[in-house]
């Protein structure tokens, strides 16, 4: 006969060696009450300090039960994704890979999307990877020679926007905003947006490995010189302006934000364990 138990949390216990027995609070009370012939006098009961959650997990991002919800952090998942993308690049272009990063893309409607980014000597690749099925779903290929501006700064929203976010990010421009059609600007599913916006992945502090691949500053330090080298080696006419790296606020032009409010709160843009559906 099997029994089902709920393991929602663990109670901390102290391990003692034999001979190190210490009477509990109730034992002390019973001993004191059972001593005849002693003068009744107030006794102070010493209490052992309780082990708090902050002691067990000094950094909230190091909680293992939180990190396991993201399939990207599970053993072998990110390694498999990197090997898949390495094989694809070797077969298609043969370009030299300079690094891999796991970041969060924020689209023009403020929706968060988990992405793997690759920087080669000629291209920037933005990969939508399914960490549940371990397969690449979508791959966006951007020539580095077409990137003309990079902005670093805090996110800002219109004054009447109802769904805002805190933090900082990076935006990469490879096309003209004036040439963007009105339909693609206000279409939440448009893939013709001439820029991409990124911020750090929420599992950045899971381990030393993810601290490196989820760090936005590390991605920027590789991307900027790669773009500059691509501009130097480009044979086309290009824009003739080189690369501009600016520090300025990053505008996300959303107002109602109902779709991003629901999606971001429930992490719909991540390969995430959603819990048990059956019973």
UniProtKB/TrEMBL annotation:
InterPro entries: hSac2, Inositol_phosphatase, TPRG1-like. GO terms for cellular component: cytoplasm. Residues 72-244 form the HSac2 domain. It comes from the Eukaryota. Residues 45-57 have a biased composition (Polar residues). PROSITE patterns: HSAC2. Residues 1-59 are annotated as: Disordered. It holds the Pfam family hSac2. Belongs to the TPRG1 family. This is Tumor protein p63-regulated gene 1 protein isoform X2. The lineage of its organism: Eukaryota, Metazoa, Chordata, Craniata, Vertebrata. The gene is TPRG1.
